[in-house]
Specification:
Elements: H1 2-12, H2 17-27, H3 35-59, H4 64-85, H5 102-110, H6 113-129, H7 135-162, H8 169-200
């Protein structure tokens, strides 16, 4: 179950459009005012986790889990490589003049491909593999949604605290490499436990 949290952290906390908006709010001194935006992001992730979790549990059964697991591991590794190769240019961040609200976070995250990338493998591969369904599915979804609130929130706080020093892309490069390594480790773990071992048995 640690793999679920590790994957969620690796995907949610890497630079992306929602996190950059949080960073922008922090750089503009709007970290506290953007709390509604962060809550909107978390609410969107809760909707995605529950939606994919309930739909996924109905069709991810038996041997098909190994096939989906293999595809999911491949995608996670692909994502890790993309993250490791990403070059961050904070000079191109567009500073929003207005305070971001709950509705902004909800709508943006529901239509953010990274939100689907974060939730789909967990809800359709990792949840069924760990026997998480029913009430535990709701509890896990709430917990992971709370982690999602912290992603843009942490970027906002970081932008607020560090200010102009955050503009050095080298620090984001180190962060990306760390997250990419975390994602690769999770992919290998999922592949071994849910693809390789069932295949060999």
């Amino acid at each position: 179950m640690l793999g679920i949290v590790a994957y969620a952290l690796g995907v949610m906390y890497t630079p992306g459009p929602v996190n950059f908006l949080g960073l922008t709010a922090g750089l503009n001194g709007q970290a506290r005012a953007s709390l509604g935006f962060c809550l909107g992001v978390g609410t969107a992730m809760l909707v995605l986790f529950l939606g994919f979790g309930w739909a996924g549990a109905a069709w991810v059964q038996g041997d098909i889990l190994a096939v989906i697991g293999a595809l999911g591991c491949g995608y996670i590794l692909y994502l890790a490589v993309r993250i490791a190769r990403t070059r961050i240019d904070l000079g191109n961040v567009d500073h929003a003049p207005r305070v971001l609200r709950f509705r902004d976070g909800l709508i943006m995250q529901l239509f953010n491909p990274k939100g689907v990338v974060a939730t789909l493998p967990i809800a359709t591969i990792q949840f069924p593999a760990e026997g998480i369904h029913g009430i535990p599915l709701v509890i896990w979804s709430l917990g992971l949604a709370a982690l999602a609130i912290g992603a843009p929130g942490s970027y906002a706080m970081l932008g607020n605290l560090v200010g102009s020093r955050i503009r050095n892309p080298r620090w984001f490069r180190y962060f990306n490499l760390t997250m990419a390594a975390l994602l690769a480790g999770v992919a290998i773990s999922i592949g071994y436990e849910h693809v390789w071992l069932p295949f060999m048995s």
